[in-house]
Amino acid sequence: MILLTFSACEASSGLALLVAATRTHGSDQLKNLNLLQC
């Protein structure tokens, strides 16, 4: 149960970081992230 809660928190914080990075660096950074994920 604790592990599940921890992964949910980690996922939400990662998403928040992604949104923050997108707002800061713009769409070019987002394209680079999409390329890295492939």
UniProtKB/TrEMBL annotation:
Record-linked InterPro entries: NUOK/Mnh_C1-like
Principal localisation: membrane
Top-level taxon of the source organism: Bacteria
GO cellular component: membrane
Bilayer disposition of the protein: Multi-pass membrane protein
Membrane-crossing segments per the record: none
Keywords: Membrane, Transmembrane, Transmembrane helix
Chain coiled-coil ranges: none
One Pfam family matching this protein: Oxidored_q2
Signal peptide as annotated in the record: none
Keyword Membrane applies: yes
Localization per Swiss-Prot or TrEMBL: Membrane
Protein name per Swiss-Prot or TrEMBL: NADH dehydrogenase subunit 4L
Originating species: Kangiella spongicola
